[in-house]
Amino acid sequence: MKGPLSELVRRWREDANVLRHCGHERTATLCERHAEEMAAAWRDFQEEGLSVRQAAQESGYSESRLYRLVEAGCVRNVGKTRAPRIARRDVPKKPGKRSPELMRLERYAIADQLLRETTDIP
Length: 122
Prior knowledge:
With 122 residues, the chain is mainly alpha-helical. It has helices at residues 4-21, 25-47, 52-59, 63-71, 100-118; strands at residues 49-51, 85-87.
């Protein structure tokens, strides 16, 4: 995990340590659970097997180009021989292309950061 989401998970773990130090064990445990759930959701998101059509939408490359990359072994096939799937983490990205799903997750993390900066939340 990298970027704003990893920062959010790191901060939630730090918050748990502060809460635990202040004697708020149950709240600390809840913060840790949220951090672990976010990290697990991110791993699941990255491991999801996308059809070549879905991968093309996320990558910026054409379906035929992705098929050729899978056939050549340049991109790992997590599906079947005649029905390839590409793990989201393995989808090659054309320079400047960003995944819509990733941008949405990053917006949540950035919104959380802004909320923390404008309130007294530690």
